[in-house]
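I hope you will forgive my troubling you with a question about protein structure. I am sending you one protein, given as its amino acid sequence and as whole-number tokens for its backbone shapes. Thank you for your consideration; the sequence and its tokens are set out here:
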Amino acid sequence: MIVVASIGAYLKFRSVWDSIKRVSIARLGPQPPKLTSATNILVIGSDSRAGPNRKFGADITGQRSDTIMVLHIAPGKQGVIVLSIPRDSVVPVLACPPEPGSAGQLAQPGQVEQINATFANGGPACLFNTVEQTSHLHLDHFIELNFTGFERVIDDIGGVSICLPFAINDPLSNLHLSRGRHHVYGREALAFWRARYIGEGSDLQRIRRDQYLMVSLLQGIERRDLLASPSRILAVSTDAAHSMTTDSGLSLPTMIGIVESLRHLPPGSVQFIELPTVQYPRNPNWVSWPASDASLFSAIARDQAVGPTAKMSGRALTNGPAQFTATKVAAKASAPPGSGPRNLARSYGGITGSANVCNDSTAFAGPRGGS
């Protein structure tokens, strides 16, 4: 009976998995070496209004990467790093072939574009290659989820708690909540995730708020032991599958292994870090990656710790693609291999999964307060 039930469960997951859209990734250059047995997954939040997403604005065409993160699962279940990449980052314009839904783009030596434009022009494969070629961090897979999928997953999980230092009435994101703690579901969680025009009104501050949302989500999943419930996992997987795109190399056994590796991790072993940036001199609304980001990319690539005094160089890089050569993984970290990058959140001003979700007032500070 147990064997029959197990086979039935696998077939259900197999059917769900087969419904996910797949994209083949054509390499645009030499892939960075894989230096450990860690798994690096590029996570993309798409703002496409196609299909069911028309309800978010049918007049908005195309797609942009609303959220870009690298999910790093360290070897031996040592921990997880969630590295958020600002969507206003400038990156070199690489040649990307067309793919369904994306026209592709021609290489423009010496020119840069916002990283979310990379996704808009060339799709997930173009963004995947661009992140690899600019960070020199080996990526294994990507997962793309749209607005509808985000809402449904939050609903299936049972919602998430957020904590507001003041009331928010943001007509652009349609978020209207009073001061204090709220348990929200898909629609309001998405509005909170996307809200930019509060506090400083910056994408960088939005990332900090989103990190607290992810911490709260992580704590809720552990508290309710949701990853131990096959029926709940199936519900989440079913709803996510209809709104998800992955690379063609991501198999069901690999995905099951990823979920299993995350299942027993305590929240404190998950670190949320925002990629350090500096203002791009040619456009005050854009940011660039300073040369000192090489230390962070190296620590992640090698699963090494860095010293607690790691800082940005403060030197913007302005000479087109040549600017990114400084981020090669040749930089040395301060700890031997195998020590694990346990202190990266402290070194780079991030938080861990055990953070107090009501301790995020700085993520709201600025002239655009609530009412």
In short: Residues 2-363 form a domain with the Aminopeptidase fold (CATH 3.40.630.190). The CA atoms of residues 345 and 351 lie 5 Å apart. Residues 1-8, 53-62, 307-339 have pLDDT under 50 and may be disordered. The chain has nine helices and 16 strands.
